[in-house]
Amino acid sequence: MKKVEVVVVGSVAFDSVKTPFGEVERVLGGSASFFSIASSFFAKTGLVGVVGRDFDEKFVQLFRKKGVDVSGLEYSDGKTFFWKGFYDFDLNIAHTIETQLNVFSSFKPVLPSAYRDAPFLFLGNISPALQLEVLEQMKKRPLTVACDTMNYYIEREPHNVKKVISHSDICLMNEAEARELFKTTNLVVAAKQILLLGAKHAIIKKGEHGSLLFSGKSFFFVPGYPLEKVVDPTGSGDSFAGGLLGFLASQKKTGGKSIRRAMVYASAIASMNAEQFSTRALESASLAQIRKRVKEFRKMTEF
Amino acid sequence: MKKVEVVVVGSVAFDSVKTPFGEVERVLGGSASFFSIASSFFAKTGLVGVVGRDFDEKFVQLFRKKGVDVSGLEYSDGKTFFWKGFYDFDLNIAHTIETQLNVFSSFKPVLPSAYRDAPFLFLGNISPALQLEVLEQMKKRPLTVACDTMNYYIEREPHNVKKVISHSDICLMNEAEARELFKTTNLVVAAKQILLLGAKHAIIKKGEHGSLLFSGKSFFFVPGYPLEKVVDPTGSGDSFAGGLLGFLASQKKTGGKSIRRAMVYASAIASMNAEQFSTRALESASLAQIRKRVKEFRKMTEF
Protein backbone atom coordinates (compact mmCIF):
# COMPACT_ATOMS: atom_id res chain seq x y z
CA MET A 1 0.00 0.00 0.00
CA LYS A 2 1.23 3.45 -0.89
CA LYS A 3 2.41 5.61 1.96
CA VAL A 4 0.23 8.57 2.89
CA GLU A 5 1.97 11.79 1.80
CA VAL A 6 -0.75 14.34 2.49
CA VAL A 7 -2.92 14.38 5.60
CA VAL A 8 -6.01 16.54 5.88
CA VAL A 9 -8.04 17.22 9.01
CA GLY A 10 -11.42 18.84 8.52
CA SER A 11 -15.14 18.29 8.19
CA VAL A 12 -17.04 15.54 6.40
CA ALA A 13 -20.66 16.45 5.96
CA PHE A 14 -24.01 16.09 4.32
CA ASP A 15 -24.86 19.22 2.32
CA SER A 16 -28.23 20.37 1.00
CA VAL A 17 -27.61 23.12 -1.52
CA LYS A 18 -29.77 25.25 -3.77
CA THR A 19 -28.34 27.47 -6.50
CA PRO A 20 -29.91 29.20 -9.52
CA PHE A 21 -28.99 26.06 -11.48
CA GLY A 22 -30.66 23.43 -9.31
CA GLU A 23 -30.94 21.82 -5.95
CA VAL A 24 -29.43 18.78 -4.23
CA GLU A 25 -30.14 17.11 -0.87
CA ARG A 26 -27.81 15.39 1.55
CA VAL A 27 -24.96 15.11 -0.91
CA LEU A 28 -21.33 14.72 0.12
CA GLY A 29 -19.86 17.90 1.58
CA GLY A 30 -17.30 19.12 4.10
CA SER A 31 -13.86 20.61 3.70
CA ALA A 32 -11.94 17.35 4.13
CA SER A 33 -14.10 15.63 1.50
CA PHE A 34 -13.36 18.15 -1.24
CA PHE A 35 -9.74 18.49 -0.15
CA SER A 36 -8.95 14.79 -0.07
CA ILE A 37 -10.51 13.99 -3.44
CA ALA A 38 -8.73 16.95 -5.09
CA SER A 39 -5.40 16.12 -3.47
CA SER A 40 -5.65 12.46 -4.46
CA PHE A 41 -5.18 13.34 -8.13
CA PHE A 42 -1.52 13.92 -7.28
CA ALA A 43 -0.54 12.21 -4.03
CA LYS A 44 -1.72 9.57 -1.56
CA THR A 45 -3.97 11.46 0.83
CA GLY A 46 -5.27 10.44 4.22
CA LEU A 47 -8.49 11.89 5.58
CA VAL A 48 -9.01 12.63 9.26
CA GLY A 49 -12.60 13.41 10.09
CA VAL A 50 -15.70 12.22 11.87
CA VAL A 51 -19.10 11.03 10.67
CA GLY A 52 -22.20 9.71 12.36
CA ARG A 53 -23.80 6.31 12.09
CA ASP A 54 -26.08 7.73 9.38
CA PHE A 55 -23.17 8.34 7.02
CA ASP A 56 -23.69 6.91 3.59
CA GLU A 57 -21.44 3.94 2.79
CA LYS A 58 -21.45 4.94 -0.86
CA PHE A 59 -19.45 8.06 0.03
CA VAL A 60 -16.82 5.93 1.74
CA GLN A 61 -16.68 3.85 -1.43
CA LEU A 62 -16.29 7.07 -3.40
CA PHE A 63 -13.31 8.17 -1.27
CA ARG A 64 -11.70 4.77 -1.76
CA LYS A 65 -12.35 4.82 -5.48
CA LYS A 66 -10.63 8.19 -5.75
CA GLY A 67 -7.63 6.81 -3.86
CA VAL A 68 -8.29 8.53 -0.54
CA ASP A 69 -7.05 6.66 2.54
CA VAL A 70 -10.00 6.59 4.94
CA SER A 71 -8.32 4.90 7.91
CA GLY A 72 -8.52 8.29 9.68
CA LEU A 73 -12.29 8.56 9.20
CA GLU A 74 -13.87 8.01 12.58
CA TYR A 75 -17.46 6.82 13.18
CA SER A 76 -19.14 8.33 16.18
CA ASP A 77 -22.55 7.73 17.78
CA GLY A 78 -24.88 10.42 16.50
CA LYS A 79 -25.55 12.15 13.22
CA THR A 80 -23.17 13.47 10.58
CA PHE A 81 -22.47 17.20 10.30
CA PHE A 82 -25.23 18.73 8.16
CA TRP A 83 -25.17 22.05 6.28
CA LYS A 84 -28.06 23.53 4.35
CA GLY A 85 -27.59 26.65 2.30
CA PHE A 86 -28.28 28.46 -0.92
CA TYR A 87 -26.65 30.78 -3.39
CA ASP A 88 -28.45 33.60 -5.15
CA PHE A 89 -27.42 34.96 -8.50
CA ASP A 90 -24.27 36.32 -6.89
CA LEU A 91 -22.61 32.96 -6.53
CA ASN A 92 -19.76 34.42 -4.50
CA ILE A 93 -21.95 34.49 -1.40
CA ALA A 94 -23.15 31.37 0.43
CA HIS A 95 -26.28 31.87 2.55
CA THR A 96 -26.63 29.42 5.42
CA ILE A 97 -30.13 28.13 6.24
CA GLU A 98 -29.11 25.54 8.78
CA THR A 99 -25.98 24.14 10.40
CA GLN A 100 -26.16 20.98 12.54
CA LEU A 101 -22.68 20.28 13.89
CA ASN A 102 -23.82 16.93 15.34
CA VAL A 103 -20.85 14.58 15.86
CA PHE A 104 -18.48 17.30 14.59
CA SER A 105 -19.10 19.41 17.71
CA SER A 106 -17.22 16.97 19.96
CA PHE A 107 -14.67 15.86 17.36
CA LYS A 108 -11.22 15.15 18.80
CA PRO A 109 -9.08 14.19 15.83
CA VAL A 110 -6.70 11.28 16.34
CA LEU A 111 -4.18 10.63 13.59
CA PRO A 112 -3.61 6.98 12.63
CA SER A 113 0.00 6.09 13.28
CA ALA A 114 0.64 5.67 9.54
CA TYR A 115 -0.22 9.35 9.03
CA ARG A 116 2.14 10.70 11.66
CA ASP A 117 5.21 11.03 9.51
CA ALA A 118 3.49 12.38 6.39
CA PRO A 119 5.45 15.26 4.85
CA PHE A 120 2.37 17.38 4.08
CA LEU A 121 -0.27 18.32 6.62
CA PHE A 122 -3.36 20.40 6.01
CA LEU A 123 -5.12 21.84 9.04
CA GLY A 124 -8.65 22.47 7.80
CA ASN A 125 -11.72 24.05 9.39
CA ILE A 126 -11.53 22.77 12.96
CA SER A 127 -10.85 24.99 15.98
CA PRO A 128 -7.36 26.49 16.28
CA ALA A 129 -6.79 24.54 19.50
CA LEU A 130 -7.54 21.26 17.72
CA GLN A 131 -5.38 22.29 14.77
CA LEU A 132 -2.44 22.68 17.15
CA GLU A 133 -3.21 19.36 18.85
CA VAL A 134 -3.15 17.63 15.47
CA LEU A 135 0.22 19.20 14.67
CA GLU A 136 1.56 17.90 17.98
CA GLN A 137 0.49 14.37 17.08
CA MET A 138 2.98 14.31 14.20
CA LYS A 139 6.20 12.36 14.96
CA LYS A 140 8.27 15.26 13.65
CA ARG A 141 7.50 18.64 12.13
CA PRO A 142 6.16 17.89 8.61
CA LEU A 143 8.00 19.32 5.62
CA THR A 144 5.00 21.54 4.94
CA VAL A 145 2.16 22.55 7.23
CA ALA A 146 -0.70 24.47 5.64
CA CYS A 147 -3.68 25.93 7.44
CA ASP A 148 -7.08 27.32 6.64
CA THR A 149 -9.62 28.82 9.02
CA MET A 150 -13.18 30.12 9.20
CA ASN A 151 -14.85 33.42 10.10
CA TYR A 152 -16.35 31.61 13.12
CA TYR A 153 -12.90 31.21 14.74
CA ILE A 154 -11.61 34.58 13.49
CA GLU A 155 -14.43 36.30 15.35
CA ARG A 156 -14.16 34.22 18.53
CA GLU A 157 -10.46 33.50 18.91
CA PRO A 158 -8.35 35.62 16.55
CA HIS A 159 -5.33 35.21 18.80
CA ASN A 160 -5.44 31.42 18.43
CA VAL A 161 -5.97 31.65 14.69
CA LYS A 162 -2.80 33.74 14.50
CA LYS A 163 -0.96 31.19 16.63
CA VAL A 164 -1.81 28.44 14.12
CA ILE A 165 -0.61 30.68 11.28
CA SER A 166 2.69 31.20 13.08
CA HIS A 167 3.16 27.40 13.09
CA SER A 168 2.36 27.05 9.38
CA ASP A 169 4.38 27.29 6.18
CA ILE A 170 1.40 28.09 4.01
CA CYS A 171 -1.62 30.02 5.21
CA LEU A 172 -4.71 29.97 3.01
CA MET A 173 -7.54 32.38 3.61
CA ASN A 174 -10.36 33.79 1.64
CA GLU A 175 -10.54 37.49 0.96
CA ALA A 176 -13.20 38.30 3.55
CA GLU A 177 -11.45 36.28 6.27
CA ALA A 178 -8.12 38.02 5.65
CA ARG A 179 -9.76 41.45 5.81
CA GLU A 180 -11.55 40.49 9.02
CA LEU A 181 -8.61 38.92 10.84
CA PHE A 182 -6.26 41.83 10.16
CA LYS A 183 -8.88 44.60 10.20
CA THR A 184 -7.88 46.03 6.83
CA THR A 185 -9.51 46.22 3.40
CA ASN A 186 -6.11 46.05 1.73
CA LEU A 187 -5.17 42.46 0.89
CA VAL A 188 -1.49 43.32 0.45
CA VAL A 189 -1.43 44.61 4.02
CA ALA A 190 -3.25 41.49 5.24
CA ALA A 191 -0.88 39.16 3.39
CA LYS A 192 2.14 40.92 4.85
CA GLN A 193 0.69 40.41 8.33
CA ILE A 194 0.42 36.68 7.62
CA LEU A 195 4.09 36.61 6.62
CA LEU A 196 5.05 38.62 9.69
CA LEU A 197 3.38 35.94 11.84
CA GLY A 198 5.90 33.49 10.40
CA ALA A 199 4.21 31.73 7.46
CA LYS A 200 6.43 31.50 4.37
CA HIS A 201 3.53 31.77 1.97
CA ALA A 202 0.26 33.68 2.25
CA ILE A 203 -2.46 32.67 -0.18
CA ILE A 204 -5.59 34.78 -0.49
CA LYS A 205 -8.49 33.16 -2.33
CA LYS A 206 -10.84 35.57 -4.08
CA GLY A 207 -13.36 33.22 -5.71
CA GLU A 208 -14.16 34.33 -9.26
CA HIS A 209 -11.42 37.00 -8.98
CA GLY A 210 -8.68 34.39 -8.66
CA SER A 211 -6.05 34.01 -5.98
CA LEU A 212 -2.92 35.75 -4.75
CA LEU A 213 0.32 34.32 -3.42
CA PHE A 214 2.74 36.36 -1.35
CA SER A 215 6.10 34.75 -0.57
CA GLY A 216 8.55 37.17 0.99
CA LYS A 217 8.86 39.99 -1.53
CA SER A 218 7.57 37.87 -4.39
CA PHE A 219 3.99 38.16 -5.57
CA PHE A 220 2.07 35.77 -7.83
CA PHE A 221 -1.39 35.91 -9.22
CA VAL A 222 -3.73 33.37 -10.78
CA PRO A 223 -6.99 34.57 -12.38
CA GLY A 224 -10.31 32.89 -11.80
CA TYR A 225 -11.11 30.56 -14.67
CA PRO A 226 -13.77 32.27 -16.79
CA LEU A 227 -16.78 30.04 -16.17
CA GLU A 228 -19.95 30.92 -18.01
CA LYS A 229 -21.96 28.75 -15.67
CA VAL A 230 -21.10 28.38 -11.99
CA VAL A 231 -23.42 25.59 -10.87
CA ASP A 232 -22.30 25.28 -7.24
CA PRO A 233 -19.19 26.91 -5.74
CA THR A 234 -19.43 24.87 -2.49
CA GLY A 235 -16.09 23.25 -1.74
CA SER A 236 -14.10 25.11 -4.38
CA GLY A 237 -11.85 26.70 -1.75
CA ASP A 238 -11.21 23.26 -0.23
CA SER A 239 -10.64 21.74 -3.67
CA PHE A 240 -8.13 24.53 -4.26
CA ALA A 241 -6.28 23.66 -1.07
CA GLY A 242 -6.34 19.96 -1.93
CA GLY A 243 -4.99 20.57 -5.42
CA LEU A 244 -2.29 22.81 -3.98
CA LEU A 245 -1.00 20.42 -1.33
CA GLY A 246 -1.40 17.34 -3.53
CA PHE A 247 0.56 18.91 -6.35
CA LEU A 248 3.31 20.10 -3.99
CA ALA A 249 3.55 16.61 -2.52
CA SER A 250 3.93 15.16 -6.02
CA GLN A 251 6.84 17.58 -6.61
CA LYS A 252 8.36 16.73 -3.23
CA LYS A 253 9.26 20.41 -2.77
CA THR A 254 7.63 23.77 -2.29
CA GLY A 255 10.40 26.08 -3.42
CA GLY A 256 11.19 27.69 -6.74
CA LYS A 257 8.31 27.69 -9.17
CA SER A 258 6.66 24.65 -7.55
CA ILE A 259 4.26 26.66 -5.45
CA ARG A 260 3.31 28.87 -8.39
CA ARG A 261 2.56 25.84 -10.52
CA ALA A 262 0.68 24.32 -7.60
CA MET A 263 -1.49 27.48 -7.43
CA VAL A 264 -2.43 27.01 -11.08
CA TYR A 265 -3.27 23.32 -10.64
CA ALA A 266 -5.28 24.30 -7.57
CA SER A 267 -7.17 26.96 -9.55
CA ALA A 268 -7.88 24.49 -12.34
CA ILE A 269 -9.39 21.97 -9.91
CA ALA A 270 -11.31 24.62 -7.97
CA SER A 271 -12.93 25.93 -11.15
CA MET A 272 -13.85 22.43 -12.31
CA ASN A 273 -15.43 21.74 -8.94
CA ALA A 274 -17.80 24.69 -9.34
CA GLU A 275 -19.19 23.32 -12.58
CA GLN A 276 -21.25 20.64 -10.83
CA PHE A 277 -22.93 20.06 -7.47
CA SER A 278 -21.07 18.50 -4.54
CA THR A 279 -17.98 16.50 -5.51
CA ARG A 280 -19.48 15.33 -8.81
CA ALA A 281 -17.07 17.23 -11.06
CA LEU A 282 -14.08 15.95 -9.08
CA GLU A 283 -15.44 12.41 -9.26
CA SER A 284 -15.53 12.38 -13.03
CA ALA A 285 -12.48 14.57 -13.74
CA SER A 286 -9.27 13.08 -15.13
CA LEU A 287 -5.72 14.26 -14.66
CA ALA A 288 -5.60 14.93 -18.41
CA GLN A 289 -8.55 17.33 -18.09
CA ILE A 290 -6.87 19.12 -15.21
CA ARG A 291 -3.66 19.46 -17.23
CA LYS A 292 -5.65 20.81 -20.18
CA ARG A 293 -7.12 23.50 -17.99
CA VAL A 294 -3.68 24.34 -16.60
CA LYS A 295 -2.56 24.94 -20.20
CA GLU A 296 -5.51 27.27 -20.67
CA PHE A 297 -4.39 29.23 -17.61
CA ARG A 298 -1.00 29.64 -19.23
CA LYS A 299 -2.61 31.00 -22.39
CA MET A 300 -4.80 33.33 -20.35
CA THR A 301 -1.87 35.15 -18.78
CA GLU A 302 0.74 35.18 -21.57
CA PHE A 303 1.59 38.48 -23.18
CA MET B 1 4.16 69.51 -35.10
CA LYS B 2 3.45 65.84 -34.53
CA LYS B 3 0.18 64.56 -35.96
CA VAL B 4 -2.51 63.59 -33.47
CA GLU B 5 -2.84 59.78 -33.39
CA VAL B 6 -5.25 59.34 -30.49
CA VAL B 7 -8.33 61.48 -29.91
CA VAL B 8 -10.28 61.40 -26.67
CA VAL B 9 -13.66 62.97 -26.00
CA GLY B 10 -14.75 63.19 -22.38
CA SER B 11 -14.95 65.34 -19.31
CA VAL B 12 -12.46 67.84 -17.92
CA ALA B 13 -13.28 68.77 -14.35
CA PHE B 14 -12.39 70.14 -10.98
CA ASP B 15 -12.43 67.38 -8.36
CA SER B 16 -12.56 67.68 -4.59
CA VAL B 17 -11.69 64.31 -3.12
CA LYS B 18 -11.29 62.91 0.35
CA THR B 19 -9.82 59.47 1.04
CA PRO B 20 -8.45 57.81 4.19
CA PHE B 21 -5.05 59.16 3.12
CA GLY B 22 -5.89 62.84 2.74
CA GLU B 23 -7.98 65.45 1.04
CA VAL B 24 -7.61 67.72 -2.00
CA GLU B 25 -9.76 70.58 -3.34
CA ARG B 26 -10.46 71.65 -6.90
CA VAL B 27 -7.69 69.55 -8.39
CA LEU B 28 -7.62 68.42 -12.02
CA GLY B 29 -10.14 65.68 -12.75
CA GLY B 30 -12.35 64.36 -15.54
CA SER B 31 -12.06 61.29 -17.76
CA ALA B 32 -10.40 63.09 -20.67
CA SER B 33 -7.76 64.60 -18.39
CA PHE B 34 -6.57 61.26 -17.00
CA PHE B 35 -6.93 59.58 -20.38
CA SER B 36 -4.97 62.15 -22.37
CA ILE B 37 -2.06 62.38 -19.95
CA ALA B 38 -1.77 58.57 -19.76
CA SER B 39 -2.06 58.15 -23.53
CA SER B 40 0.56 60.84 -24.17
CA PHE B 41 3.30 58.61 -22.77
CA PHE B 42 3.04 56.65 -26.00
CA ALA B 43 1.34 58.66 -28.75
CA LYS B 44 0.35 62.21 -29.67
CA THR B 45 -3.07 62.64 -28.10
CA GLY B 46 -5.69 65.30 -28.74
CA LEU B 47 -8.19 66.21 -26.06
CA VAL B 48 -11.78 67.20 -26.88
CA GLY B 49 -13.61 68.64 -23.92
CA VAL B 50 -15.13 71.75 -22.44
CA VAL B 51 -14.22 73.95 -19.49
CA GLY B 52 -15.61 77.15 -18.02
CA ARG B 53 -14.00 80.55 -17.75
CA ASP B 54 -12.90 79.59 -14.22
CA PHE B 55 -10.62 76.83 -15.50
CA ASP B 56 -7.12 77.01 -14.16
CA GLU B 57 -4.51 77.97 -16.77
CA LYS B 58 -1.94 75.90 -14.92
CA PHE B 59 -3.85 72.76 -15.89
CA VAL B 60 -3.69 73.74 -19.55
CA GLN B 61 0.04 74.21 -19.10
CA LEU B 62 0.18 70.77 -17.49
CA PHE B 63 -1.56 69.16 -20.49
CA ARG B 64 0.88 70.89 -22.84
CA LYS B 65 3.87 69.88 -20.75
CA LYS B 66 2.75 66.25 -20.92
CA GLY B 67 2.46 66.54 -24.71
CA VAL B 68 -1.33 66.65 -24.90
CA ASP B 69 -2.75 68.60 -27.86
CA VAL B 70 -5.35 70.95 -26.37
CA SER B 71 -6.65 72.52 -29.57
CA GLY B 72 -9.86 70.56 -28.97
CA LEU B 73 -10.36 72.01 -25.49
CA GLU B 74 -13.26 74.43 -25.71
CA TYR B 75 -13.89 77.35 -23.34
CA SER B 76 -17.51 78.06 -22.64
CA ASP B 77 -19.25 80.80 -20.64
CA GLY B 78 -19.98 79.38 -17.21
CA LYS B 79 -18.24 77.17 -14.71
CA THR B 80 -16.17 74.02 -15.16
CA PHE B 81 -17.64 70.59 -14.34
CA PHE B 82 -17.18 70.02 -10.61
CA TRP B 83 -17.24 66.70 -8.74
CA LYS B 84 -16.94 66.27 -5.02
CA GLY B 85 -16.67 62.85 -3.47
CA PHE B 86 -14.99 60.60 -0.97
CA TYR B 87 -13.75 57.08 -0.52
CA ASP B 88 -14.04 55.14 2.70
CA PHE B 89 -11.71 52.36 3.67
CA ASP B 90 -13.10 50.28 0.82
CA LEU B 91 -11.37 52.26 -1.90
CA ASN B 92 -13.24 50.39 -4.62
CA ILE B 93 -16.33 52.51 -4.02
CA ALA B 94 -16.56 56.24 -4.83
CA HIS B 95 -19.22 58.12 -2.87
CA THR B 96 -20.49 61.27 -4.58
CA ILE B 97 -21.26 64.30 -2.41
CA GLU B 98 -21.89 66.76 -5.21
CA THR B 99 -21.91 66.88 -9.01
CA GLN B 100 -22.18 70.22 -10.82
CA LEU B 101 -22.26 69.52 -14.56
CA ASN B 102 -22.04 73.26 -15.35
CA VAL B 103 -20.71 73.82 -18.92
CA PHE B 104 -20.50 70.04 -19.44
CA SER B 105 -24.32 69.79 -19.45
CA SER B 106 -24.61 71.57 -22.81
CA PHE B 107 -21.36 70.27 -24.29
CA LYS B 108 -21.52 69.63 -28.05
CA PRO B 109 -18.11 68.28 -28.96
CA VAL B 110 -16.61 69.61 -32.20
CA LEU B 111 -13.45 67.91 -33.41
CA PRO B 112 -10.69 70.17 -34.76
CA SER B 113 -10.08 69.34 -38.38
CA ALA B 114 -6.58 68.02 -37.55
CA TYR B 115 -8.17 65.36 -35.33
CA ARG B 116 -10.57 64.03 -37.93
CA ASP B 117 -8.29 61.49 -39.53
CA ALA B 118 -6.69 60.17 -36.33
CA PRO B 119 -6.43 56.37 -36.36
CA PHE B 120 -7.48 55.94 -32.71
CA LEU B 121 -10.62 57.40 -31.21
CA PHE B 122 -11.77 57.04 -27.63
CA LEU B 123 -15.39 57.85 -26.88
CA GLY B 124 -15.38 58.68 -23.18
CA ASN B 125 -18.13 59.48 -20.69
CA ILE B 126 -20.46 61.67 -22.76
CA SER B 127 -23.97 60.63 -23.79
CA PRO B 128 -24.25 57.80 -26.33
CA ALA B 129 -25.89 60.20 -28.83
CA LEU B 130 -22.91 62.57 -28.59
CA GLN B 131 -20.50 59.63 -28.86
CA LEU B 132 -22.10 58.68 -32.17
CA GLU B 133 -22.03 62.31 -33.38
CA VAL B 134 -18.31 62.46 -32.64
CA LEU B 135 -17.75 59.27 -34.59
CA GLU B 136 -19.59 60.80 -37.55
CA GLN B 137 -17.31 63.84 -37.49
CA MET B 138 -14.34 61.65 -38.43
CA LYS B 139 -13.35 61.86 -42.13
CA LYS B 140 -13.28 58.08 -42.32
CA ARG B 141 -13.85 55.24 -39.88
CA PRO B 142 -10.78 55.24 -37.59
CA LEU B 143 -8.59 52.14 -37.43
CA THR B 144 -9.74 51.62 -33.84
CA VAL B 145 -12.74 53.04 -32.04
CA ALA B 146 -12.96 52.38 -28.32
CA CYS B 147 -15.80 53.31 -26.03
CA ASP B 148 -16.52 53.63 -22.35
CA THR B 149 -19.78 54.53 -20.66
CA MET B 150 -21.31 55.34 -17.27
CA ASN B 151 -24.04 53.85 -15.10
CA TYR B 152 -25.99 57.09 -15.69
CA TYR B 153 -26.47 56.25 -19.39
CA ILE B 154 -26.82 52.51 -18.80
CA GLU B 155 -29.82 53.20 -16.58
CA ARG B 156 -31.42 55.83 -18.85
CA GLU B 157 -30.62 54.69 -22.38
CA PRO B 158 -29.25 51.14 -22.45
CA HIS B 159 -30.34 50.77 -26.07
CA ASN B 160 -28.13 53.69 -27.15
CA VAL B 161 -25.21 52.46 -25.09
CA LYS B 162 -25.46 49.15 -26.95
CA LYS B 163 -25.59 51.01 -30.26
CA VAL B 164 -22.29 52.73 -29.46
CA ILE B 165 -20.77 49.36 -28.54
CA SER B 166 -21.89 47.96 -31.90
CA HIS B 167 -19.89 50.75 -33.60
CA SER B 168 -16.76 50.10 -31.54
CA ASP B 169 -13.78 47.79 -31.84
CA ILE B 170 -12.95 47.88 -28.16
CA CYS B 171 -15.54 48.26 -25.44
CA LEU B 172 -14.29 49.06 -21.94
CA MET B 173 -16.57 48.76 -18.97
CA ASN B 174 -16.18 48.36 -15.30
CA GLU B 175 -17.50 45.27 -13.58
CA ALA B 176 -20.64 46.86 -12.11
CA GLU B 177 -21.55 48.53 -15.40
CA ALA B 178 -21.21 45.29 -17.35
CA ARG B 179 -23.40 43.42 -14.84
CA GLU B 180 -25.99 46.21 -14.97
CA LEU B 181 -26.14 46.63 -18.75
CA PHE B 182 -26.55 42.92 -19.45
CA LYS B 183 -28.49 42.04 -16.31
CA THR B 184 -26.18 39.23 -15.26
CA THR B 185 -23.73 38.68 -12.40
CA ASN B 186 -21.54 36.53 -14.65
CA LEU B 187 -18.85 38.62 -16.36
CA VAL B 188 -18.15 35.95 -18.98
CA VAL B 189 -21.79 36.14 -20.04
CA ALA B 190 -21.63 39.97 -20.09
CA ALA B 191 -18.44 40.00 -22.15
CA LYS B 192 -19.94 37.59 -24.69
CA GLN B 193 -22.89 39.95 -25.06
CA ILE B 194 -20.48 42.80 -25.83
CA LEU B 195 -18.85 40.68 -28.54
CA LEU B 196 -22.26 39.70 -29.92
CA LEU B 197 -23.06 43.40 -30.33
CA GLY B 198 -20.14 43.61 -32.71
CA ALA B 199 -17.12 44.79 -30.70
CA LYS B 200 -13.95 42.79 -31.38
CA HIS B 201 -12.65 43.18 -27.84
CA ALA B 202 -14.50 43.37 -24.54
CA ILE B 203 -12.50 44.67 -21.61
CA ILE B 204 -13.92 44.44 -18.10
CA LYS B 205 -12.15 46.53 -15.48
CA LYS B 206 -12.37 45.17 -11.93
CA GLY B 207 -10.33 47.72 -9.96
CA GLU B 208 -8.06 46.00 -7.45
CA HIS B 209 -9.06 42.61 -8.94
CA GLY B 210 -7.48 43.43 -12.30
CA SER B 211 -9.00 43.36 -15.75
CA LEU B 212 -10.28 40.87 -18.27
CA LEU B 213 -10.02 40.85 -22.05
CA PHE B 214 -12.30 38.76 -24.22
CA SER B 215 -11.47 38.65 -27.94
CA GLY B 216 -13.49 36.05 -29.81
CA LYS B 217 -12.73 32.77 -28.05
CA SER B 218 -9.52 34.10 -26.54
CA PHE B 219 -9.39 35.22 -22.94
CA PHE B 220 -6.69 37.27 -21.23
CA PHE B 221 -6.29 38.40 -17.69
CA VAL B 222 -4.16 41.05 -15.96
CA PRO B 223 -4.07 41.17 -12.15
CA GLY B 224 -4.40 44.36 -10.17
CA TYR B 225 -0.98 45.59 -9.13
CA PRO B 226 -0.58 44.80 -5.42
CA LEU B 227 -0.62 48.29 -3.90
CA GLU B 228 -0.15 48.52 -0.18
CA LYS B 229 -1.44 52.08 -0.17
CA VAL B 230 -4.18 53.22 -2.53
CA VAL B 231 -4.21 56.98 -1.99
CA ASP B 232 -6.88 57.95 -4.54
CA PRO B 233 -8.32 55.64 -7.20
CA THR B 234 -10.10 58.49 -9.03
CA GLY B 235 -9.25 58.38 -12.72
CA SER B 236 -7.55 55.00 -12.68
CA GLY B 237 -10.10 53.56 -15.11
CA ASP B 238 -9.52 56.49 -17.47
CA SER B 239 -5.75 56.21 -17.07
CA PHE B 240 -6.15 52.53 -17.96
CA ALA B 241 -8.03 53.43 -21.15
CA GLY B 242 -5.46 56.11 -22.03
CA GLY B 243 -2.56 53.74 -21.53
CA LEU B 244 -4.34 51.10 -23.61
CA LEU B 245 -5.12 53.30 -26.62
CA GLY B 246 -1.81 55.18 -26.46
CA PHE B 247 0.19 51.97 -26.41
CA LEU B 248 -1.84 50.48 -29.27
CA ALA B 249 -1.29 53.66 -31.30
CA SER B 250 2.46 53.38 -30.69
CA GLN B 251 2.35 49.83 -32.05
CA LYS B 252 0.23 50.92 -35.01
CA LYS B 253 -1.80 47.73 -34.67
CA THR B 254 -4.22 46.03 -32.34
CA GLY B 255 -3.86 42.40 -33.42
CA GLY B 256 -1.66 39.58 -32.19
CA LYS B 257 -0.24 40.14 -28.76
CA SER B 258 -0.42 43.95 -29.06
CA ILE B 259 -3.68 44.28 -27.21
CA ARG B 260 -2.50 41.95 -24.43
CA ARG B 261 0.66 44.00 -23.98
CA ALA B 262 -1.43 47.16 -24.12
CA MET B 263 -3.58 45.79 -21.28
CA VAL B 264 -0.47 45.35 -19.15
CA TYR B 265 0.81 48.86 -19.89
CA ALA B 266 -2.67 50.15 -19.11
CA SER B 267 -2.71 48.28 -15.79
CA ALA B 268 0.72 49.62 -14.89
CA ILE B 269 -0.37 53.22 -15.49
CA ALA B 270 -3.72 52.75 -13.75
CA SER B 271 -2.02 51.40 -10.63
CA MET B 272 0.52 54.22 -10.59
CA ASN B 273 -2.30 56.75 -10.87
CA ALA B 274 -3.91 55.44 -7.68
CA GLU B 275 -0.77 56.09 -5.66
CA GLN B 276 -1.33 59.85 -5.55
CA PHE B 277 -4.22 62.31 -5.71
CA SER B 278 -5.53 63.67 -9.02
CA THR B 279 -3.10 63.37 -11.94
CA ARG B 280 -0.03 63.90 -9.74
CA ALA B 281 1.41 60.41 -10.18
CA LEU B 282 0.99 60.62 -13.96
CA GLU B 283 2.62 64.05 -13.99
CA SER B 284 5.81 62.80 -12.38
CA ALA B 285 5.93 59.29 -13.89
CA SER B 286 8.48 58.39 -16.54
CA LEU B 287 8.24 55.86 -19.33
CA ALA B 288 11.08 53.97 -17.66
CA GLN B 289 9.01 53.62 -14.47
CA ILE B 290 6.04 52.37 -16.44
CA ARG B 291 8.23 49.79 -18.20
CA LYS B 292 9.65 48.70 -14.86
CA ARG B 293 6.14 48.05 -13.57
CA VAL B 294 5.26 46.16 -16.76
CA LYS B 295 8.21 43.87 -16.03
CA GLU B 296 6.87 43.33 -12.52
CA PHE B 297 3.54 42.28 -14.04
CA ARG B 298 5.38 39.70 -16.09
CA LYS B 299 7.02 38.31 -12.96
CA MET B 300 3.69 38.29 -11.15
CA THR B 301 2.07 35.92 -13.63
CA GLU B 302 4.92 33.63 -14.67
CA PHE B 303 4.81 30.01 -13.57
Instruction: Sum up the overall morphology of chain A in one term.
Output: globular
* Interface with most residues: A-B, 38 and 38 residues
Could you give me the name of the CATH homologous superfamily of chain A? Ribokinase
- Oligomer kind: homodimer
Query: Architecture of chain A, CATH level 2?
Result: 3-Layer(aba) Sandwich
The overall pLDDT average of chain A reads: 96
- Approximately what portion of the residues of chain A adopt beta-strand conformation? 15-25%
Task: Provide the number of structural domains of chain A.
Answer: 1
Can you characterise this structure?
- 2 copies of one chain form a homodimer.
- Chain A is an alpha/beta fold and 303 residues long.
- The first copy, chain A, has one domain: Ribokinase (UDP-N-acetylmuramoyl-L-alanine:D-glutamate ligase).
- Chain A contains 11 helices and 13 strands.
- In chain A, helix 3 links the parallel strand 8 and strand 9.
- Chain A is globular and about 50 Å long.
- Chain A starts with 5 loop residues before the first strand and ends with a helix.
- The interface between A and B is large, with 38 and 38 residues.
Write the layout of secondary structure elements.
2 copies of one chain form a homodimer.
Chain A: E1 6-9, E2 13-19, E3 22-29, H1 31-39, E4 45-52, H2 57-65, E5 73-76, E6 82-87, E7 94-100, E8 120-123, H3 128-137, E9 144-147, H4 151-156, H5 158-166, E10 170-174, H6 175-182, H7 187-197, E11 201-205, E12 211-215, E13 218-222, H8 236-251, H9 258-273, H10 280-284, H11 287-301
Parallel strand pairs in A: 1-4, 1-8, 2-6, 4-5, 8-9, 9-10, 10-11
Antiparallel strand pairs in A: 2-3, 6-7, 11-12, 12-13
Helix pairs in contact in A: 1-8, 3-5, 6-7, 8-9, 9-11
